[in-house]
Design goal:
This protein has helices at about 10-35, 45-55, 85-95, 100-105, 110-120, 120-125, 250-280, 300-325, 330-355, 360, 365-375, 385-395, and strands spanning about 130-135, 150-155, 160-170, 175-180, 190-200, 205-210, 220-230, 235. The chain is α+β, with helices and mostly antiparallel strands and about 400 residues long. It has three domains: about 10-125, Butyryl-Coa Dehydrogenase, subunit A, domain 1, CATH 1.10.540; about 130-235, Butyryl-CoA Dehydrogenase, subunit A, domain 2, CATH 2.40.110; about 250-395, Up-down Bundle (Butyryl-CoA Dehydrogenase, subunit A, domain 3), CATH 1.20.140. A hairpin with a 2-residue loop joins strand 2 and strand 3. The two termini are about 35 Å apart.
C-alpha cells in the first residue's frame, strides 16, 4: 500500500471551504480577539452550527477535531483517505486564518479528539454534540504525563477525582473536560486513565484564566478537582491496569491529536511564508527556486529555506494522519510530525518577522501576532524535547526507564 501525499480529490472541496472560512471569517477578526483576550468570539457560533450541519449530513468527511478516529485492522489491498487526513487538511487551512480562533470553535476541542479516538460507541452517543476540553498538565507534571498526581478512586458506581489541572484549552467555555488521572499512583504509567467530566460538575472548580503570549482568542483555564464524582461509565477505555500496555487508551489519544497540532503549525507557517513573500515582492525581492542560494539575495535564500522546512512538515503531518486512517501504528510518525512542524513554525515565524523588519513588528500586520501564536504549537501535546525523546526511544528500542 503506497501513500499519495497530494490532496485527495474527494477532499478538494473541503479544503476550499475551509480556506474560504479562514479568509472571510477568521482573518478579519483575528486582531480583534487577540486584543480582547478572554472575550468569546460570537462570530464563531454561526460557523460552528454550519460545521455541525455538515457533519450531520455526512458531507464534511470527518473534518474538525471531533472527526478523528483510528481505522480498525490493516487492509493492505486498500488505500483509505479518511477522517484523520480530512481533519488535518481542514485544520491547516483554518490555522492559516487564526490558530486561537480555531481552538475557540465550539465542539472542536482537543477533548473531542480524545473522545473520538478512544470512546466506545455508547460514550460517543452520550457525548455527541458536546464541546470537550482536555486536561492533562499539572503544576508538577508538564511534559511528563506519567508524573500525573491527580487521582481517581472508585467508590461504588462513581470515580472520585482529586487534583489540580492547568493550561486547559477552552476549559471555561467547554461543556465537558477530559481529565487524565491515576487509578493507582504506585502503578506508574499503566494506571493513567482519562475521564469525561461535565463542566457543570460542582467538584470541578475553575481556579483562574491565564493571560498568555499568544492564541489569546482561546481561553486557557486552571481547575481544582475537589472530590469530583463522575459515573464509572465516563472512564474512556478499559478500567484494567495493564502494565504490559502502559498508558493504553489514554496514550492513543496523542496518536490522533499530535497530527492535529502539527497541522495547526503547518497552517500558521504557510500564513507567515505567504505574507512575507508578498512583502518581499513589494520590495523587489523575488525568490527563485531554480537558482542556487548563493546567487540570490540573503532574504530570498532564507525564504526558500523556510519553504523547504514547511514542505517537510506538511508531508510528515499528512503521513501520520494517513497511517491512522489505514490502521497502521502511527505513534512514531505522530511525534515526527509534531516535532518537525512545531519547530518549523516557531523558526519560520521569527525569521519572517526578521525578514520583514519594521513591518514584521507592527500591529498593522499579523506577522507579529503569528510569531506569538507560534510558540504554543511547539509546546502543547508534548514539547519539542519530549517528542525527540519519544522518537529516540522508539528508534533505539529502549523503554522510558532506559532512556530518560
Amino acid at each position: 500500500m503506497a501513500i499519495d501525499l497530494e490532496v485527495p480529490r474527494r477532499f478538494e472541496q473541503l479544503v476550499e471551504q475551509a480556506h474560504m472560512v479562514a479568509a472571510e471569517v477568521l482573518r478579519p477578526i483575528s486582531r480583534k480577539y487577540d486584543l480582547a483576550e478572554h472575550e468569546y468570539p460570537k462570530e464563531l457560533d454561526m460557523l460552528a452550527a454550519m460545521i455541525d450541519g455538515l457533519e450531520e449530513g455526512g458531507s464534511s468527511s470527518g473534518a474538525g477535531a471531533a472527526g478523528v478516529s483510528r481505522a480498525s485492522g490493516n487492509d493492505d489491498d486498500g488505500n483509505r483517505n479518511g477522517s484523520n487526513l480530512a481533519s488535518v487538511l481542514s485544520v491547516m487551512e483554518m490555522c492559516w486564518g487564526d490558530v486561537g480562533l480555531l481552538l475557540s470553535l465550539p465542539r472542536q476541542g482537543l477533548g473531542n479528539s480524545a473522545i473520538a479516538a478512544v470512546a466506545d460507541e455508547d460514550q460517543k452517543r452520550r457525548f455527541a454534540g458536546k464541546w470537550a476540553a482536555m486536561a492533562i498538565t499539572e503544576p508538577e507534571a508538564g511534559s511528563d504525563s506519567a508524573a500525573i498526581r491527580t487521582t481517581a478512586v472508585l467508590d461504588g458506581d462513581e470515580y472520585v477525582l482529586n487534583g489540580e489541572k492547568i493550561y486547559v484549552t477552552a476549559g471555561e467555555r467547554a461543556e465537558l473536560v477530559v481529565v487524565w488521572a491515576s487509578l493507582d499512583p504506585d502503578r506508574g504509567r499503566a494506571a493513567i486513565k482519562s475521564f469525561v467530566v461535565p463542566r457543570s460538575n460542582p467538584g470541578l472548580k475553575l481556579d483562574r484564566l491565564e493571560h498568555k503570549l499568544g492564541i489569546r482568542a482561546s481561553d486557557t483555564a486552571a481547575f481544582i478537582l475537589d472530590d469530583c464524582r463522575v459515573p464509572k461509565e465516563n472512564l474512556l477505555g478499559s478500567p484494567e491496569i495493564d502494565t504490559e500496555k502502559s498508558f493504553g487508551g489514554a496514550m492513543r489519544t496523542f496518536d490522533s491529536t499530535r497530527p492535529l497540532v502539527a497541522a495547526m503549525a503547518v497552517g500558521l507557517t504557510r500564513a507567515c511564508l505567504e505574507r512575507t513573500g508578498e512583502l518581499l515582492a513589494e520590495a523587489g525581492i523575488e525568490p527563485d527556486p531554480d537558482r542556487p542560494a548563493g546567487r540570490q539575495s540573503a532574504a530570498a535564500a532564507a525564504l526558500l529555506e523556510i519553504e523547504a522546512d514547511y514542505e517537510a512538515a506538511r508531508l510528515l503531518t499528512m503521513e501520520a494522519a494517513w497511517m491512522a486512517d489505514n490502521g497502521k501504528p502511527n505513534s512514531l510518525h505522530a511525534s515526527y510530525a509534531k516535532a518537525k512542524a512545531g519547530r518549523t513554525c516557531v523558526d519560520a515565524a521569527l525569521r519572517c518577522v526578521e525578514l520583514c523588519g519594521a513591518a514584521g513588528l507592527g500591529e498593522d500586520e499579523l506577522l507579529e501576532k503569528w510569531a506569538r501564536d507560534a510558540k504554543i504549537l511547539d509546546i502543547f501535546e508534548g514539547t519539542q524535547n519530549i517528542q525527540l525523546l519519544i522518537i529516540a526511544r522508539q528508534l533505539l528500542g529502549l523503554s522510558s526507564a532506559e532512556l530518560k
